[in-house]
Design brief:
Pfam families: DDE_Tnp_IS66_C (PF13817). The protein is mostly helical and 54 residues long. Helix content is 44%, strand content 0%. The protein has one domain (2-45).
């Protein structure tokens, strides 16, 4: 769990949103495409951890 949270943070993703996304999508996801659920592949689908500074 710590590595999931750490990977999300390193990719600028809200860790809670990332874990929720993975848990809701993993059951229906093909095992051959599991890398689609890695943080850097879902970053555009999730809000950033912190808002961009102007």
């Amino acid at each position: 769990m710590y590595s999931l949270i750490g990977s999300a943070k390193l990719n600028g993703i809200n860790p809670r949103a990332y874990v929720e996304y993975v848990l809701t999508h993993i059951a229906d996801h093909k095992i051959s495409r599991i890398d689609d659920l890695l943080p850097w592949n879902v970053a555009d689908k999730l809000k950033p951890a912190t808002p961009p500074t102007p």
